[in-house]
Design brief:
homodimer; alpha/beta; six-stranded parallel β-sheet; 14 helices; 17 strands; 38% helix
Chain lengths: 428, 428
């Protein structure tokens, strides 16, 4: 058994976790996976972590390119993140013919084409299980065990921070602002929570999932993205009343005329398996033509979970490297078009704040009729503020373009103070 | 790309499904998995299926050994099942150096040592994803993506028939007998439902899961097995009242002094992810030291799901076969002891039928004290029959041996008509 020499770029919590796993389970992996992994070089911009992680002066460096270019390094683990120096390092490693393991969802969702094409050209193994769903093995099953299926749908709760916030807004009735603050206090949310609460993190992940599931390139820009800022505890409470949970769902469907891919707060039936995924947990649900429905559930964040995924990739890359296995690559060759959001057909739950009730139902009815939008239920709900009430309506299946037209017209009505929230309802 | 020639033994619904998948997705698998699969030979005891599946006279045979011995067959798929001829065929295929894919849980859980040892000796790939959890990719992640973890627990709902029955007993209050009948009418249960309802099917599956998770041989005989025959809708109803769901759980824990492995009806908190796995669905829940908790959910039965798992294995075996990858094998080298059930420590929920109430609590108290069993709650519950009532008690954590002693003494009490049910309560 040849020792496979690993170079790590970035020694944050995940990088430290990878070193911990290799220290603890190196013998186990030799016996049970047939792979001997050794961390020979590691880089970080700060020297602080070197001692903490027991790295010698020979191993540690503040120059990540030194690790990539070290002829003694067989495989490169990129854990710096972002699309700056991480991109240069990943490209340099691939150019040097070294397999790359990365957790960098931003890089793959924005520069995927460049990175994957170079990897394909060079026949270099590129693995990124940790980029989606933390420690949950989902990309590996998707690209291996499920190859005998046409995957027609993949969707999931792929951002633990917002799922924690929504769980707290549901269980404890917290406001959005209080939920953000609590998530920040617990270290689940960043000081600037934008990437999480505006859905960009989830969008990068569904772009990666959709690319692998449908064998077609989907980038971050292709994903219609809406976060949870406008959600209130009242929306969640009303959803519960009618049997739904509210989740920030990342959804990708392969339809006849292209890929429908989006991230938005979604009402799903409480009986659905995804509805009981609470707190910081993640889950990815998918459907294949033979396998039917599947769900993969687990810890979506945390050093140990992400490090577990990186080491799983390392073991596979090392096995392939040892045996000279041909690399399959991304194979995003199907080039399916992305459907515009306007073509989406789904149901909607809309909460309006109304000032003067007289004649408002008649006015709303006129708007619905104008765009041929069919209403399943319309409900008036307690006092909102002095002289104001809330109206909540749920539509039958409607074209997004028609729904947007309805909302524009409704906002013009004098009695309507505000369209307080619009939630898509998925009958999954 | 070399075409990998497949021979199939057994053309039931799963065998037919494998042929369907290869017919439908052969080109897709060439492009996206780098593998060209072709079914060149197939065997069944009846000739009926040959025409249905479009097999020519050259391809089809009633002699399965002809398929195994055909020099044109590269990989053998065994879907006959059982431990009779299937065992001879699998051993013959391995002896001939051909990778084997099987869904045969009975064979692996009883003759695993013989089969795995031969495969290891010959360096032959043996894959069996379809033997546990139908189409759910669980064995592959366990042995690949999760290699960087020490798995300390694996448990699951791995028998769809009994899970369907329990779901119906819960939702519709069906009796055990009515639930069996309904499952039989729907084709979920066999005419003789023993293997399902007495837990043997689940026991074979947890033996396989535990072997892979803990790298130690666990056989069917090692599994303490109890089915759901004694369960009534009343047990389920009471469990619900105190916040628990009743599931036939297959459980394996790696403890300091060995492996705890068992199958029995179990009360689990309704908030647990496994509690919402209903109907014929299966799910496997596991815990690793770095990855934390994971769950894999999906269709545990059905031709398409099982065929999907077989084809996933075929693709991996074919890739390894093409590239001459070294085979890792079962690596059940840790030889951990199996803990006797008597050493189990858990909580218990016991339902008693009582005839003469006077003094019975005092008598029960004496028994509990004698064996130092601590009671969390004791509740009397409506009339059971003329002059009879039910007592339900829940214990704190107790040694199984003490609990069994308590139950033996309780059965001797004159006022106790019957120990109607004993459920283990898992605080997972």
């Amino acid at each position: 058994m040849k020792t496979v020499k690993v170079g790590i770029l970035g020694l944050g919590v995940v990088g430290g976790g990878v070193i911990d796993i290799i220290n603890k389970h190196r013998e186990k992996m030799k016996t049970h996976a047939g792979v001997d992994l050794e961390v020979v070089r590691a880089a970080d911009i700060s020297t602080e972590r070197f001692d903490q992680l027991g790295l010698t002066a020979d191993q540690a460096t503040t120059d990540a390119f030194e690790v990539v270019n070290d002829p003694n390094v067989d495989v490169v683990v990129e854990l710096i993140g972002g699309t700056g120096i991480a991109r240069d390092l990943v490209l340099a490693a691939i150019e040097a013919g070294k397999p790359v393991i990365t957790a960098n969802k931003a890089l793959l969702a924005t520069h995927g084409e460049e990175v994957f094409n170079l990897a394909d050209d060079k026949g270099v193994d590129l693995r990124f299980e940790a980029s989606v769903g933390g420690g949950i093995p989902v990309l590996e099953p998707l690209t291996h065990a499920l190859t005998g299926n046409e995957i027609t749908r993949v969707m999931g709760i792929v951002n633990g921070t917002t799922n924690y916030m929504l769980s707290r807004m549901t269980d404890a009735g917290l406001s959005f602002d209080d939920a953000v603050k609590e998530a920040q206090d617990l270290g689940y949310a960043e000081a600037d929570p934008t990437a999480d609460v505006d859905g960009f993190d989830a969008a990068a992940k569904i772009a990666i999932l959709a690319s692998l599931a449908f064998n077609s390139r989907v980038t971050l820009d292709d994903v219609a993205t809406e976060g949870i800022r406008k959600l209130s505890a009242a929306d969640i409470e009303y959803a519960e009343e009618i049997g739904y949970a509210v989740k920030l769902l990342a959804i990708a469907n392969k339809l006849e005329n292209g890929i429908d891919v989006r991230v938005h707060p979604t009402m799903i039936p409480v009986s659905h398996q995804l509805a009981s995924v609470n707190g910081v947990y993640n889950a990815v649900y998918m459907t294949g033509d033979f396998v039917g429905d599947l769900m993969f559930f687990g810890e979506g964040a945390g050093a140990g979970a992400a490090a577990s995924a990186v080491v799983g990739d390392l073991v596979e890359a090392a096995r392939a490297y040892q045996s000279g296995n041909e690399v399959i690559g991304c194979t995003c060759t199907d080039s399916l078009p992305i459907r515009p959001l306007e073509d989406l057909e789904t149901r909607y739950c809309v909460r309006l704040v109304i000032e003067d009730r007289s004649g408002v139902i008649h006015q709303l009815g006129e708007v619905f009729d104008k765009y041929d939008v069919s209403i399943k239920s319309l409900k008036q709900r307690g006092a909102y503020a002095e002289g104001q009430v809330e109206f909540i309506f749920v539509t039958h299946r409607t074209l997004e373009a028609d729904m947007q037209a309805v909302l524009r017209d409704i906002e013009e009505l004098t009695s309507v103070v505000e369209v307080a929230s619009v939630l898509r309802v998925e009958e999954i």
